[in-house]
## 1
Amino acid sequence: MDYLKNISLVLVFILSVSFVILHHGWANYDQTKVLDFESVITESTYENPHAIAKMEYQGEPWTVVLAPASRMTARGLSAEMIKKGTAVRVVAYPHKKEKGEMRAERIYVDDEKYELR
């Protein structure tokens, strides 16, 4: 019985550590470099762990990491609102190492502001 309990504890520990390692959070984004721009979404996915929008910034394609879908839904930002062809304003931070990736702090759709953190 103690053997099974120990195995269970080890599995819980391993899963917990793997989630922490896999979750990238804000540490990988340079919060000293604020990118504030308008663009049109060329592609989007609305799913966990994070919704993603693809758009151009300064003539280059970028991947914009948004909030988890559940958080966006709770704040009134639906999948329909960030579909392909939607004009948005984004305030974001570039990834420290991955060229062409940024993490959005907020997004404006039809001049309505949605906080994503």
## 2
Amino acid sequence: MAVDIFKGDSMVPWKLFNKWPNCKSTLVSMFWSIIHIYRGENVCADKLANFGVASKTYTWWNNLPNFIFEDHVRDKLSLPNFRFSA
């Protein structure tokens, strides 16, 4: 959905609608790209996104959060990640 929003193919969720123009004006001064990566390939981003959805407060870390430390090490060492479902 985020990729579609940035491409202009989807509407911004109403909770973010008022902040979207500020975001777009900030992005004009940056070189950036957005692509889709399946969550199984980016476990750290998936866990951080889930944290952001569940969190009701602004959070800033100066160091790697404990809940993604192990996944970050696995990624850094190019070790595989597997998702199993029943």
## 3
Amino acid sequence: MKKIVVLIALACIPFLGTSQSIFDKFEDSDRIGSITINKGMLDIVSKIMENDSDPESQEFIEIANRINKIKIFLSEDEDAAEDMAVTMKQYVKSAKLEELMKVRDGDTNLNFYVRYGKDEDHVKELLMFAKGIDEKRKHDSYFEPETVLLTITGDIDLAQVGTLTKKMKLHKGLHKLDKE
């Protein structure tokens, strides 16, 4: 019996070191663009900017030092956008994320979800899902939806989230947050 338990434990070891995400399937998709920024890259950016006396740069450094990973998925493909929406909803439910805010303005929908951290002002994970029309293309003869899925993990101060999303310029609809 002891040998069986040891064999099972050894068989599971390779899986313990890899943390798979439900969103990893999007990384190899031809229809979905992806950006992954790991802690190491955030540390490099922080080091480069550390001598910058600009208050916004210092705030960005403070935010970056508390983040472990940023994943961004973008698509203009309708089927891929629908897959992203379904996967996001499954993840929100299974990870027990709470809705923080919802913004709907015309064709743009923004949803923010969080997993709270050490207190109500800090979150372990922030998920943003934006779906809407790319404003650059509204004036063309056709419309293409633009979908963005962003997940940030770490020790995130909610008071600084607006600064981060504006600096990253992820979706044209984010300017609507200033109005809310």
